[in-house]
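Lab notebook page, bench 4
Experiment: in silico fold of construct C2
Operator: M.H.
Input chain length: 137 residues
Purpose: comparison with the prior construct
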Amino acid sequence: MIGARSNQDIIQALTLFIRKLNDECRNKALVVIEGQRDANALRSIGFEGDLFLLCHNGSLTKLASKAEKYKKIVLLLDLDRKGRVLTKRTATILQEKNSNIDLFFRRELAKVTKGRIRHIEELARFGDHLQNLVIGL
């Protein structure tokens, strides 16, 4: 069970995380996630930027084509084994196309949640707490 103080610390850290991610998107970054539940979770905590859903939008070839329109591609795939493999494969393909790949937010998510979040969709449990904080900033 997560303590109230620990939860509060995570909420504060996630607020800053989402603010930084939204700032990146305002500066022409595209965030790549796995699927619709991940998109819903990010939206529930105040994310406002452009998303590319690997499982919905199709192949990595489509992503490589879309990536040309963005300054940076933020890979925010799950922190489990499948997500690591997919991140590596996606980064390799995008680097071949000379895309600017950003893995900071993936590492930062693990850090700010103290390893408690392994799937992006799990962020939805913080939605009610974060939505009001992020919008108010």
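Observations: The mean pLDDT is 88. The chain has one domain: 4-128.
Next step: discuss at group meeting.
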